[in-house]
Amino acid sequence: MADTQTFNQVKAAHLKTLRQYVPVVARVHGQSHPEFHEVHNLFNAIDKKIKASGSKLPELNGEFAKLSELTNNYSIPDDVCESYEAVYNMLRELDRAYNA
C-alpha cells in the first residue's frame, strides 16, 4: 500500500493543476478521445475521495486500476496537446505514489 507521505507530496504537487486541466482536456479532446470522459469521471471520484479523507489515505485501488486499464498504462496518444500529456503524466505519478 501507499506511503502516505509520498502520496501526499505528489498530491500536493499535482492536484490543483489536475483540477484545472482535466475538465479542459475533456472539453477539447473528448470528441476524438471519448475515453477521456471516463478519465474525467474517475479523476472526479479520486478527487472527491481525497477531499473526504482529509489527512488520511483514501481507498483508491479501484480507481487507479480502472485509470491504468482505460489509458493503457497512461500511454499518451499521438494527436493530443501538451495539457493532455501533462494530465496523463500527473495521474501516472499519483498512481505510482499511491501504489508505492
Structure description:
α2 runs antiparallel to α3. The model has no long low-confidence stretch (mean pLDDT 94). It contains four helices and no strands.
Mean pLDDT score, rounded? 94
Number of helices: 4
* Proportion in β-strands: under 5%
Report the span from N to C terminus: 6 Å
User: Could you give the order of the helices and strands?
Assistant: HHHH
Counted beta strands: 0
- Sketch the major β-sheet: none
Q: What labels describe this entry?
A:
single chain, 100 residues, mainly alpha, 4 helices
Helix-strand layout with pairing:
Elements: H1 4-29, H2 35-53, H3 61-70, H4 82-98
Helix pairs in contact: 1-2, 1-4, 2-3
Quick structural gist:
By secondary structure, the protein is mainly alpha-helical.
